[in-house]
């Protein structure tokens, strides 16, 4: 896995492996992603290695602006910007989720 998008990679040894759900006491790998900043920043990093290996990093854009609602969520406003007025029984869950199973 390419780790260029991560700020830090931690290997946490010991009992934390037991609380991750895998019940493996050896270790857990914790990936810390790089955080966006208020102002525009630029950085260039280059790496040269043996056997003709090289790498150049310096460009990453994450423009995830969305005008739509989240998956499975109900919008708070209609397209004309008026507030929605849902009935209290309104739900996005499928009908089969309400069937009685005996």
Describe this structure in words.
With 102 residues, this protein is an all-beta fold. It has no helices and 4 strands. It has strands spanning 6-13, 27-33, 45-49, 53-57. The strands form 2 sheets. A two-stranded antiparallel ribbon has the order 1-2. It has a two-stranded antiparallel ribbon with strand order 3-4. The model has no long low-confidence stretch (mean pLDDT 75).
- What is the total tally of β strands? 4
Radius of gyration: 23 Å
Share of residues in strands = 15-25%
Per the principal axes of the C-alpha atoms, what is the gross shape? Answer: flat
Order of helices and strands: EEEE
Secondary-structure-based class equals mainly beta
**Spans of 5+ residues with little confidence (pLDDT < 50)?**
none
Assign a percent range to the helix content.
Answer: under 10%
Number of helices: 0
Distance between the termini: 46 Å
What can be said about the biggest beta sheet? Answer: 2 strands, antiparallel
Q: What's the helix and strand layout?
A:
Elements lengths: L5 E8 L13 E7 L11 E5 L3 E5 L45
Antiparallel strand pairs: 1-2, 3-4
